[in-house]
Amino acid sequence: MSDKKLRIGILGASGYTGADLIRLLVAHPNAEIVLMTGERKAGLPIESVYPHLGGYGLPDMISINDIEWPAVDLDVVFCALPHATSQQVINGLMHSVQHSLLEELVAEGQDDLANQINTEVKIIDLSADFRLRDTETYAKWYGHEHQAPALQPQAVYGLPEIYREQIETAKLVACPGCYPTAALLALIPPLRAGVISHKDIIIDAKSGVSGAGRSLKESNLYVEVAEAMHPYGLGHHRHMPEIEQELSVASGADTVISFTPHLVPMNRGELETIYVKLNNGQTVQSLRSTLEQTYANSPFVRVLEEGIAPATRMVRGSNHCVLNVFQDRQSDRAIIVAAIDNLVKGSSGQAIQNMNLMFGLPETTGLLQAPMFP
User: Fold this and answer.
1) Count of CB atoms situated within 10 Å of the CB of 80
2) What is the CATH number of the domain that holds 284?
3) What's the pLDDT at 18?
4) Using CB atoms within 10 A of its CB, is residue 66 exposed (0-12), middle (13-18) or buried (19+)?
């Protein structure tokens, strides 16, 4: 694409994922943030909510209801809103926003300008609203009917390392959840290659508190979280059907997992320890080789040297995922460990990676920050 900057809207800019989107996009050479919403922070400058984001000439936050859509010419919208809300907003965006602008320009006799307008804004959704291909499965796990079922078939699952070609031509991308991102990067290649069984997969996952969002919850207060760790969503976490959906596609068979997330007292970061059964004739080395070959040319996924255990400190603040494989004491089983930053590769960074692909930019643009340590 040309050097023209993409005009970007961020819906839900006042949340943690919205803040990381802004942090990364202000350094992106092809990005210009022209619209930000925050319902509880409407009318406020971003630095009053996140002081570290002041000084970048960003627009004040407004309410979604106050957006004059026909007057807003956007190339891409990042939707960082709660589930259900995203479906309603995106449904309206994809059916009316740019078309309304086009009609207005034609009515004013500005045909030349109208011909330059992209009539379909591209949407990158960071919520769970379009991740599940089956709308009945969505209703079962999220407790209400899908609000935009006609759009669901258009949604591309936004895991770049697996669906890169589909993302490049997509108009609506559904970014994976943070837990699924780490799990799927670890499990899809060996399942596709037949190295591991699709049965008896156990995922022990741990995430920092930012994964729970910024809303006030008693369970997320400092004294509730500090110096402790606890599991949640036992046996029924909403990321389970998302993981199972993609693993079933990879294995070609219905795949049911055991998955338990834990909250740990750190701001950001995610670590998953995954226990798998090797298929007959397969070894830990063949599992490792499969991952190495799959990600040999992937800029953000790296298999560590043998014997080195992935840790969240290796990826903090970056769009990287680090993996490694270990032999279990049971000879027919192996352990895969994956680490990501839940707010970057698990959310906002991956969303920008998808944007780059959708607009023909180098995949790494704006995402080459090295991990922060200490």
Assistant:
1) 28
2) 3.30.360.10
3) 94
4) exposed
Report d(CA 60, CA 37) in Å as an integer.
8
Whether 239 and 95 share a structural domain: no
State how far Cα 374 lies from the chain centre: 25
Helix (H, G, I), strand (E, B) or coil at 254: coil
- Report the range of poorest mean pLDDT among 21-25, 109-113, 193-197, 307-311: 109-113
- The two tokens of residue 136 are 């009945």
Pair 122, 261 in one domain: no
pLDDT digits (tens, 9 = 90+) for 82-105: 888 889 888 877 765 545 555 554
How do residues 267-298 score in pLDDT, each as one tens digit? 999 999 999 999 999 999 999 999 999 999 99
Poorest-confidence range of 3-7, 162-166, 214-218, 363-367? Answer: 214-218
- Over the stretch 53-71, which tens digit does the pLDDT of each residue have? 999 999 999 999 888 765 5
Do the Cβ atoms of 187 and 200 come closer than 8 Å? Answer: no
Give the residue ranges of DSSP H helices in the chain: 16-25, 85-92, 98-107, 111-116, 135-142, 160-168, 178-192, 222-225, 240-251, 284-294, 349-358
Interatomic CA distance for residues 72 and 41, integer angstroms: 20
Q: Which of 79, 175, 178, 321 is catalytic?
A: 178
Q: What's the CATH number where 91 sits?
A: 3.40.50.720
Full domain range(s) for residue 89: 6-176+346-358
Please, how many CA atoms are within 13 Å of residue 84, restricted to the half-sphere of its CB? 6
- 208 shares its domain with 86: no
144 and 196 co-located in one domain: no
User: Which 3 state secondary structure label does DSSP give 367?
Assistant: coil
Does residue 71 lie within any of the structural domains? yes
165 and 266 inside one domain: no
242 and 143 share one domain: no
Q: Quick one: what percent of the chain has pLDDT higher than 70?
A: 89
- Which DSSP string do the residues of 191-228 spell out, in sequence order? HHTTSB-SSSEEEEEEE-GGGG-SS--GGGSHHHHTT-
Predicted confidence (pLDDT) per residue in 112-166, tens digit: 544 444 457 899 999 999 999 999 999 999 999 999 999 999 999 999 999 999 9
Catalytic annotation present for 178:
yes
Domain annotation covers residue 193: yes
Same domain, 154 and 263: no
